[in-house]
């Protein structure tokens, strides 16, 4: 268990976002890696990176690509103008990810500039994240939290079940939150959590690694449109959200 003191870190200097994008996404069916699946003709990764890199709090975005697909990801980003040096947008870096999400985040951490002291981790499969949510997570970390995650209230009744499918309990849903990304961390907290992680029992998110280390994770309000695209139906929903945004003038 972590026995250090998280809150006596260095002064504020910079925020980076790590985007693990090396997964295949089998539940979406055969085809391109999940991060490159198109929504309204534009890869999910491009939608996500546009929002992340335009957030006012973010100075660097590091994408962990499939180990054999770094060139492909760089080409996709270039085709959509994301590697251009534009004023008011974060710089981008593509690195080779690992075999697991945990490996990919750890590798991206090693590639961060020294001046970065706050790190967000965002799923490439959450392409509709709002820049405002990115800034809110970053601000919460800078306000003193060791780790911050956005979450939305659970509206369905949730049951716990055993291996045979028998119900073993009904948790109070008022105490439950569906956790989203970006998740935010003080850099030394996330680095310590990854250094102590058990590679044979990977966590489903980075906040879980911090919890295992004994750190405190703060939940702030999430955004229903920051949902994760996992199934074919999610692609349809994402396209509908983008169509609504365009109709309302949010997108050009």
List the helices and strands and how they pair.
Blueprint: E1 15-20, E2 38-39, E3 42-43, H1 44-54, E4 60-65, H2 70-79, E5 91-96, H3 101-110, E6 118-121, H4 131-142, E7 147-153, E8 160-161, E9 167-169, E10 177-179, E11 183-186, H5 187-196, H6 206-212, E12 217-221, H7 232-247
Parallel strand pairs: 1-4, 1-6, 4-5, 7-12
Antiparallel strand pairs: 2-3, 6-11, 7-10, 7-11, 8-9
Helix pairs in contact: 5-6
Characterise the protein shown here.
The protein is 30% helix and 20% strand. By secondary structure, the chain is an alpha/beta fold. The protein has a single domain, classed as Spore Coat Polysaccharide Biosynthesis Protein SpsA, Chain A (Alpha-Beta Complex). Strands 1, 4, 5, 6, 7, 10, 11 and 12 form an eight-stranded mixed beta sheet that branches. Helix 2 (70-79) links the parallel strand 4 and strand 5 (91-96). The relative contact order is 0.18.
